[in-house]
């Protein structure tokens, strides 16, 4: 269903399961690049668009009427997501720097630890990162986090536990701590 519409008008066969033709791929790359996504991340963005088209077909949804336009909109959303993630990481780095004691601010070891923590936080799933930041950086008690997020306290506790374990494992993996 999706492949039939997406492949219509192709001059070359790029692969039996490729939902984007060459012109659509170029358009997606252009939208991502104009949206500020670095050259190194463009291929990942194109793959995300392909994945979303394939997921749409796999879930039984009808193919978009205009795959090229749909792909461009998805690419623009991906570019916005990329910028949000970049800003979030920058803000988190600034917050961590502000939390660092002044006497340790100049130490190379402290900078490396802060960077490793930021990278580890960035790799956590959104739900785990959210509760970890609220608990340890915003200093909210579990009960308040649960109330604010509309979750049971047990869910908050299990997410915190999983997040702390994953972050600790990541820091040990990188031999930071």
Description:
- The protein is mainly α and 177 residues long.
- It is 71% helix and 0% strand.
- The chain has helices spanning 2-7, 22-34, 42-58, 67-99, 108-123, 126-137, 142-149, 153-173.
- Helix 2 packs across helix 3 and helix 3 (42-58) packs across helix 4 (67-99).
- The longest helix has 33 residues, at 67-99.
- The termini are far apart.
Topology:
Blueprint: H1 2-7, H2 22-34, H3 42-58, H4 67-99, H5 108-123, H6 126-137, H7 142-149, H8 153-173
* Main β-sheet description: none
Helix tally equals 8
Give the oligomeric state of the chains in this entry, treating copies of one chain as homo and distinct chains as hetero.
single chain
Q: Name the structural class.
A: mainly alpha
Keywords for this structure?
single chain, 177 residues, mainly alpha, 71% helix, disordered N terminus
Can I get a quick summary?
This protein has 177 residues and is an all-alpha fold. The protein has eight helices and no strands.
